[in-house]
Amino acid sequence: MLDAAYDDALGVTAAFNLNMLRHLNHLIGADFDVRQWQHRGFFNGAENRVEMHLEARCDVNVGWDGGRRHFARGERIHTEDSYKYSQARFIGLLEQAGFAATRVWTDPQQWFAVIHARVIED
């Protein structure tokens, strides 16, 4: 399910991720050709996170003012991590940061949660 959410059939997440290259072109004057890249989004179970990458479809040379970088076909740029926590683990993180969970809402399968937290006052 997480793989499908971060690599959706409509390509919304891919478009969002690839837009990063357009933004770099604008921001630093790079010359990324977005057509030479593809989105990869997948769950990394060892790290308990979803990772997003941009992968070179072919050998690519990218330049910007004062720099140049070669990317080999298949080489990736790691663009995002989205960590996944159980409710108990996330509430534990909140408590370590000085918050208390006051209310938790979940879906019927308890795959997702919204947690309302407040600052613990001494």
Feature tags:
three-stranded antiparallel β-sheet; 7 strands; alpha+beta; two-stranded antiparallel sheet; single chain; 122 residues
Characterise this structure.
Helix content is 26%, strand content 40%. Strands 1-2-5 form a 3-stranded antiparallel sheet. A hairpin with a 2-residue loop joins β3 and β4. The protein has 3 helices and 7 strands; from the N terminus they run ααβββββαββ. It is elongated and about 55 Å long. The model has no long low-confidence stretch (mean pLDDT 94). The chain has 122 residues and is α+β, with helices and mostly antiparallel strands.
Rg, Cα atoms, Å: 19 Å
Mean pLDDT: 94
Computed structural class: alpha+beta
N- and C-termini, Cα separation: 41 Å
Sketch the major β-sheet: 3 strands, antiparallel
Number of strands: 7
Count of alpha and pi helical runs: 3
Strand order in space, largest sheet: 1-2-5
Strand content: 35-45%
Shape: elongated
The stretches of 5 or more residues where confidence is low (pLDDT under 50) are none
- Written as H for each helix and E for each strand, in order along the chain, the element string is HHEEEEEHEE
* Fraction in helix: 25-40%
Topology:
Elements lengths: L1 H5 L5 H17 L8 E8 L4 E8 L3 E5 L2 E5 L4 E8 L3 H10 L2 E8 L6 E7 L3
Antiparallel strand pairs: 1-2, 2-5, 3-4, 6-7
